[in-house]
């Protein structure tokens, strides 16, 4: 085997394999990179202008490497011819999915390695020359040993060097994370051949990553480090979410708390945002995988400790929904509730394990009519996700997906924010004057509110138009956007929502994305996660 890599194959064209190989190919014009997948539609999408995943900046990178838009020779290919790509490669990434097992030993907790195993078998069947095999997928500690057994049994005449090189990118920021990684971890055995394989892989990254950020450690540490990193990140969010419950009960404010605690350099400020629960394809799966590993090693105290991270996350989703129900007089039946955001975080169209799936499930169990808007997630995806977890008939009867926020919120009794999309921010609304008593405003009945000219002054920036003369609760716009306010294309128009929602205009912010005071100045009542009600 030559010490320099010239041909890379990546098995699995998903959220990890696709962006990672695009960045590798862009930065290594001399290396041919072929990403393969079993799924024909997925590969067809990767070959088209409509990539199968939404990721800021991804298309630019793909265009350079796949299409040679900057005048260079293309070196990034997407294909379903897995055998050919394996045969030609000297380094193969395994980037397939490792979901939680749904049946058999460890069901609901252990990682399902069936896809990793089938990729390994495929490699063993096809390979005729020595290859470096790189685990990219997050795998339980010890998986490299299982791969070795498969290769030894099926392809004894070919030499495989097995490396662990976990990927730490987060969705929504994948390109930035790949271009400027905190570290590149390469795990290998310590014999000379393995070390030289690790060096060959390090050279691929060194094309754009400073050498001091490329860390080589032992194979088992590398496998466990990826799992540990995800579990500790999830644990931070469960910690802050558990504290958000205390904040709501005491009047402490979770954002002030996160800020104050995060200033301690030993703790740090990242991953401390309270939410209605973490989602995504990794955190829950990886924590449960660690729980299973601990149980398998007869370490029940360790297993229980990590299990509580997932328990708090379930509790948080449930707690947020209960708060909505309670604030709406314990009855949601036939009330229209607008849900803003369905993706598990902003800047992605991915919905796997999104808190929205559980929260909306509970709302429709209470017989609410749920109107959903997400800037990136398609209607079919939303309905498929909900029907997979909740009775399909109830989903069909109770859920409508809208293409814009204004329609979703029209006539709604409440707005529930579940994803922190910038679109939902309230920075286009002027800060209310400090002397405007928002508490008193809330205490007023609707008619008084609409006649309350003290907040209609021009320096508060809000025009309040007289409400209807009779006292019937008709839906009539009382708030108009002042001409001076510019709405950024990326922001939804809260003025219009105020004008078309039912009163009282309830907003439940599961992400602390809106400013309760600004919304209050438009007549909204906001309940935010980790803050006491009706600010
Ligand atoms: C702690 C807080 O650090 C400090 O901010 C607060 O004001 C008081 O409590 P202290 O108890 O003096 O300070 O020491 P600290 O360095 O935090 O260590 C506490 C314990 O944790 C020690 O037993 C220490 O050995 C242990 N520790 C600390 C670890 O086991 N591992 C670590 O990585 C750090
Ligand atoms: C995560 C890890 O960050 C990444 O390193 C790993 O490679 C894959 O798993 P990802 O799931 O894409 O990445 O996104 P992340 O930004 O970590 O968010 C996960 C979930 O936690 C999201 O639902 C997010 O909204 C939530 N979250 C994140 C919070 O609730 N609060 C925070 O402070 C941060
Ligand atoms: P991740 O988030 O880890 O990238 P994804 O589910 O987005 O996971 O992508 C994994 C991809 O791997 C899927 O597109 C799936 O079709 C593909 N895949 C799974 N097993 C194999 C296999 N044996 N050969 C080729 N592709 C595979």
From TrEMBL:
<dbReference type="InterPro" id="IPR017476">
    <property type="entry name" value="UDP-Glc/GDP-Man"/>
</dbReference>
<feature type="binding site">
    <location>
        <position position="352"/>
    </location>
    <ligand>
        <name>NAD(+)</name>
    </ligand>
</feature>
<feature type="domain" description="UDP-glucose/GDP-mannose dehydrogenase C-terminal">
    <location>
        <begin position="338"/>
        <end position="434"/>
    </location>
</feature>
<dbReference type="GO" id="GO:0005634">
    <property type="term" value="C:nucleus"/>
</dbReference>
<dbReference type="Pfam" id="PF03721">
    <property type="entry name" value="UDPG_MGDP_dh_N"/>
</dbReference>
<dbReference type="GO" id="GO:0003979">
    <property type="term" value="F:UDP-glucose 6-dehydrogenase activity"/>
</dbReference>
<dbReference type="Pfam" id="PF03720">
    <property type="entry name" value="UDPG_MGDP_dh_C"/>
</dbReference>
<comment type="pathway">
    <text>Nucleotide-sugar biosynthesis; UDP-alpha-D-glucuronate biosynthesis; UDP-alpha-D-glucuronate from UDP-alpha-D-glucose: step 1/1.</text>
</comment>
<feature type="binding site">
    <location>
        <position position="42"/>
    </location>
    <ligand>
        <name>NAD(+)</name>
    </ligand>
</feature>
<dbReference type="InterPro" id="IPR014026">
    <property type="entry name" value="UDP-Glc/GDP-Man_DH_dimer"/>
</dbReference>
<feature type="binding site">
    <location>
        <begin position="282"/>
        <end position="285"/>
    </location>
    <ligand>
        <name>NAD(+)</name>
    </ligand>
</feature>
<dbReference type="InterPro" id="IPR036291">
    <property type="entry name" value="NAD(P)-bd_dom_sf"/>
</dbReference>
<dbReference type="Pfam" id="PF00984">
    <property type="entry name" value="UDPG_MGDP_dh"/>
</dbReference>
<dbReference type="InterPro" id="IPR001732">
    <property type="entry name" value="UDP-Glc/GDP-Man_DH_N"/>
</dbReference>
<dbReference type="InterPro" id="IPR014027">
    <property type="entry name" value="UDP-Glc/GDP-Man_DH_C"/>
</dbReference>
<feature type="binding site">
    <location>
        <begin position="96"/>
        <end position="100"/>
    </location>
    <ligand>
        <name>NAD(+)</name>
    </ligand>
</feature>
<feature type="binding site">
    <location>
        <begin position="137"/>
        <end position="138"/>
    </location>
    <ligand>
        <name>NAD(+)</name>
    </ligand>
</feature>
<dbReference type="InterPro" id="IPR028356">
    <property type="entry name" value="UDPglc_DH_euk"/>
</dbReference>
<feature type="binding site">
    <location>
        <begin position="12"/>
        <end position="17"/>
    </location>
    <ligand>
        <name>NAD(+)</name>
    </ligand>
</feature>
<keyword id="KW-0560">Oxidoreductase</keyword>
<comment type="similarity">
    <text>Belongs to the UDP-glucose/GDP-mannose dehydrogenase family.</text>
</comment>
<dbReference type="InterPro" id="IPR036220">
    <property type="entry name" value="UDP-Glc/GDP-Man_DH_C_sf"/>
</dbReference>
<dbReference type="InterPro" id="IPR008927">
    <property type="entry name" value="6-PGluconate_DH-like_C_sf"/>
</dbReference>
<dbReference type="GO" id="GO:0051287">
    <property type="term" value="F:NAD binding"/>
</dbReference>
<feature type="binding site">
    <location>
        <position position="37"/>
    </location>
    <ligand>
        <name>NAD(+)</name>
    </ligand>
</feature>
<dbReference type="GO" id="GO:0006024">
    <property type="term" value="P:glycosaminoglycan biosynthetic process"/>
</dbReference>
<feature type="active site" description="Nucleophile">
    <location>
        <position position="282"/>
    </location>
</feature>
<feature type="binding site">
    <location>
        <position position="171"/>
    </location>
    <ligand>
        <name>NAD(+)</name>
    </ligand>
</feature>
<protein>
    <recommendedName>
        <fullName>UDP-glucose 6-dehydrogenase</fullName>
        <ecNumber>1.1.1.22</ecNumber>
    </recommendedName>
</protein>
<keyword id="KW-0520">NAD</keyword>
């Amino acid at each position: 085997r030559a010490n320099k890599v010239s041909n890379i194959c990546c098995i699995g064209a998903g959220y990890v394999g696709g962006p990672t190989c695009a960045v590798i190919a862009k930065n290594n014009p001399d290396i041919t990179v072929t990403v393969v997948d079993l799924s024909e539609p997925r590969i067809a999408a990767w070959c088209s202008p409509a990539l199968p995943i939404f990721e800021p900046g991804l298309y630019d990178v793909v265009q350079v490497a796949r299409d040679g838009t900057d005048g260079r020779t293309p070196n990034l290919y997407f294909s379903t011819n897995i055998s050919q790509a394996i045969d030609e490669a000297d380094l193969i990434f395994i980037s397939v999915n490792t979901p939680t097992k749904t049946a058999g030993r460890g069901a609901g907790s252990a990682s399902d390695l069936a896809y990793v195993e089938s990729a390994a078998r495929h490699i063993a069947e096809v390979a005729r020359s020595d290859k470096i095999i790189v685990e990219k997928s997050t795998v339980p500690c010890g998986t490299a040993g299982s791969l070795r057994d498969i290769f030894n049994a099926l392809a004894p005449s070919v030499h495989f060097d097995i490396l662990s090189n976990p990927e730490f990118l987060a969705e929504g920021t994948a390109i930035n994370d790949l271009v400027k990684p905190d570290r590149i971890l390469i795990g290998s055995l310590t014999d000379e051949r393995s070390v030289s394989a690790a060096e060959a892989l390090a050279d691929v990254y060194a094309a754009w990553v400073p050498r001091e950020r490329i860390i080589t450690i032992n194979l088992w540490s590398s496998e466990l480090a990826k799992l540990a990193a995800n579990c500790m990140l999830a644990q931070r969010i469960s910690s802050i979410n558990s504290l958000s419950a205390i904040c709501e009960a005491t009047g402490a404010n979770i954002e002030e708390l996160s800020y104050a605690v995060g200033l301690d350099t030993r703790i740090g400020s990242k991953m401390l945002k309270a939410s209605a629960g973490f989602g995504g394809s990794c955190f829950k799966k990886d924590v449960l995988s660690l729980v299973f590993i601990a149980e398998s090693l007869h370490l029940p105290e360790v297993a229980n400790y990590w299990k509580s991270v997932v328990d708090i996350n379930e509790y948080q989703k449930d707690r947020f929904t209960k708060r909505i129900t309670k604030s709406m007089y314990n009855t949601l039946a036939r009330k229209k509730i607008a849900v803003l955001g369905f993706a598990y975080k902003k800047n992605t169209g991915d919905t796997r394990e999104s808190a929205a799936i559980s929260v909306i499930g509970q709302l429709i169990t209470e017989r609410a009519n749920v109107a959903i808007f997400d800037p990136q997630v398609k209607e079919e995806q939303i309905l498929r996700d909900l029907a997979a977890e909740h009775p399909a008939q109830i989903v069909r009867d109770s859920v409508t997906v809208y293409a814009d926020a204004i329609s979703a919120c029209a006539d709604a009794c409440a707005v529930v924010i579940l994803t922190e999309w910038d679109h939902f921010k309230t920075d286009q609304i002027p800060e209310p004057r400090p002397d405007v008593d928002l508490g008193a405003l809330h205490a007023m009945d609707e008619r008084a509110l609409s006649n309350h000219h003290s907040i209609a002054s021009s320096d508060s920036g809000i025009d309040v138009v007289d409400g209807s003369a009779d006292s019937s609760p008709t839906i009539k716009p009382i708030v108009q956007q002042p001409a001076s306010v510019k709405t950024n294309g990326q922001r939804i128009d809260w003025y219009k929502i105020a004008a078309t929602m039912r009163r009282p205009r309830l907003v439940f912010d599961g992400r602390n994305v809106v400013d309760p005071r600004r919304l209050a100045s438009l007549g909204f009542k906001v309940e935010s996660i980790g803050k006491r009600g009706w600010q």
